[in-house]
User: Which sequence fits this backbone?
């Protein structure tokens, strides 16, 4: 029996497709507190991220870019859970996201906190695409570090 | 020239153990040959033979194993020399790969001969390995880098080339065949233009030497760089051909054992060619296996290799015309086009296509192909590429086309294509 494309369903979940078709929070900020460009040198995926901080809170966020569906949808999904969080929470979310992409099954609590980004769980089964999903999250850390470098 | 059917693909395929593999439950369809080729048993076995029977260092012993290893190592150099019709085996320098060969020229010949105000001419269709060393050289020297553009139909603009190569040009660095477009460049014409102004010409033969008859003397090139791993040989070894008169006066770049003649505590003098450019224990096993790869290709005959690939490419071009939403890059006719088909999709990113094809066991290249400026100049950020070799069949082109259609159906149902 020849294998078809059925296994792709795990990767291309509806939530991800929706964010790829209609990315959220793409409007550029007027006066960003921090902005970075992240490029994946192996494939050329690009993410441009802007953060508007109000005190220690991410009050506004914008992600634009060019690249594959995973990298772009992940960026859009990221904006939804990071918007309104403190910088510490944002960094925590990044850790949780990274654990989901590289580790074992996620707990219910973690699943709750990652909200719709949980849809990217299927990427784990396609190891070369994990870096696509992580690109915007590393952009987030770079953008946060620009404002206040992570404490050692 | 023998007819293309002379090439017995089924018997060739049986020499490549990897081609029996299954990938994701499907037979492997390997179409990423421009990145690296697969290896026949004969090449793999030559590595095993060396390590099992006569593993030893070269040029430095009177014992039997060392003599055997040295002979096999130098024999392989001779095979490469004949393969590209170099005038002498001293003109064949072993390197790690094409990139190292190109850098060797940038750091030796060019370092000594390019000065402030001079010009380096290269083309719009180079691999990063043949752009970045020249950018760096231009910055170090205060020289100018000029780029010969691509025409609308994917060829090199030879009229522009004639204008860009001037009395100030010191070196012309060009690909022989583009790894993205498949365009075969008229190297002889560029060599004539370069020589007319007293410049040298360096040819990136990474994609030509594996796929067509290449004669460095007929092309009249001064340097030619290529990698064994793209021509059935192992990874980790490449070649720089240099015109003997030029190599003779070219300064060495790496210093150490093997490349010296005499050493005192204060100074040293240099060994003869080609050893002057091969410091330290060389990649003996892989050089020998490169000789085995050359043997394999010569039995088939490079005219037949080229004829077979022309046939496959022509067939693939015809079948690609059936596909909607797919835009081919580079020449659309097979004259002077190698077995490389790069394409972009109207709405799908090449990685999404590549992942889908991988599910079907089809290996293609996706991304920027180490040619970012070229990809960008086509107004895209990434492309997919299928590239063929001696073991590929028209049946595999059909598998690719069916796979692309299936992927298109899948992604359009998903609403993203
Ligand atoms: C045209 C061309 N030049 C240079 C290179 C670099 O070869 P290597 O990676 O073996 O140094 C390649 C291989 O990708 C190529 O296709």
Assistant:
């Amino acid at each position: 029996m020849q294998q078809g494309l059925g296994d792709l369903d795990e990767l291309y979940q509806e939530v991800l497709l929706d964010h790829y078709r209609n990315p959220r929070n793409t409007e550029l900020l007027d006066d960003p507190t921090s902005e970075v460009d992240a490029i994946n040198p192996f494939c050329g995926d690009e993410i441009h991220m802007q953060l508007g901080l109000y005190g220690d809170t991410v009050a506004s966020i914008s992600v634009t870019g060019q690249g594959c569906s995973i990298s772009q949808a992940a960026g859009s999904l990221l904006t939804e859970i990071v918007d309104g969080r403190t910088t510490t929470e944002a960094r925590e979310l990044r850790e949780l996201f990274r654990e989901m992409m590289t580790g074992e099954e996620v707990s219910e609590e973690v699943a709750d906190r990652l909200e719709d980004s949980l849809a990217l769980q299927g990427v784990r089964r396609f190891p070369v695409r994990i870096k696509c999903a992580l690109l915007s999250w590393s952009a987030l850390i770079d953008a946060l570090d620009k404002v206040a470098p992570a404490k050692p | 020239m023998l007819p293309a059917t002379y090439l017995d693909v089924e018997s060739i395929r049986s020499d490549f153990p990897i081609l029996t593999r299954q990938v994701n439950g499907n037979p492997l369809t390997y179409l990423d040959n421009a990145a690296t080729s697969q290896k026949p048993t004969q090449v793999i076995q030559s590595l095993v033979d060396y390590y099992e029977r006569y593993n030893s260092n070269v040029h430095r012993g009177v014992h039997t194993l060392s003599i055997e290893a040295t002979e096999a190592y130098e024999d392989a150099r001779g095979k490469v020399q004949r393969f590209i019709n170099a005038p002498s085996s001293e003109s064949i320098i072993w390197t790690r790969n094409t990139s190292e060969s190109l850098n060797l020229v940038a750091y030796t010949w060019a370092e000594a001969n390019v000065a402030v105000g001079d010009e380096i001419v290269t083309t719009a269709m180079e691999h990063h390995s043949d752009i970045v060393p020249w950018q760096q050289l231009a910055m170090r020297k205060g020289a100018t880098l000029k780029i010969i553009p691509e025409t609308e139909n994917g060829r090199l603009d030879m009229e522009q080339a004639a204008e860009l190569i001037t009395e100030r040009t010191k070196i012309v660095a060009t690909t022989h065949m583009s790894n993205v477009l498949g365009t075969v460049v008229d190297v002889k014409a560029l060599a004539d233009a370069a020589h007319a102004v007293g410049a040298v010409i360096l040819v990136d033969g990474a994609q030509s030497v594996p796929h067509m008859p290449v004669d460095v003397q007929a092309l009249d090139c001064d340097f030619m760089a290529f990698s064994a791993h793209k021509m059935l040989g192992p990874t980790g070894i490449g070649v720089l051909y240099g015109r003997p008169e030029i190599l003779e006066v070219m300064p060495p770049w790496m210093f150490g054992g093997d490349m010296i003649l005499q050493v005192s505590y204060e100074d040293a003098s240099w060994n003869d060619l080609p050893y002057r450019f091969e410091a330290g224990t060389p990649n003996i096993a892989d050089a020998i296996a490169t000789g085995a790869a050359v043997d394999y290709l010569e039995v088939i005959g490079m005219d037949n290799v080229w004829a077979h690939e022309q046939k496959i490419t022509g067939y693939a071009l015809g079948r690609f015309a059936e596909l909607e939403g797919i835009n081919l890059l580079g020449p659309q006719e097979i004259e002077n086009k190698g077995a490389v088909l790069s394409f972009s999709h109207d709405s799908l990113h090449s990685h999404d296509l590549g992942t889908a094809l991988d599910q079907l066991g089809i290996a293609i290249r996706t991304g920027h192909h180490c040619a970012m400026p070229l990809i960008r100049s086509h107004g895209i950020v990434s492309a997919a590429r299928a590239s063929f070799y001696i073991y590929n069949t028209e049946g595999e082109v059909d598998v690719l086309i069916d796979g692309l259609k299936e992927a298109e159906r899948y992604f359009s149902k998903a609403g993203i294509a």
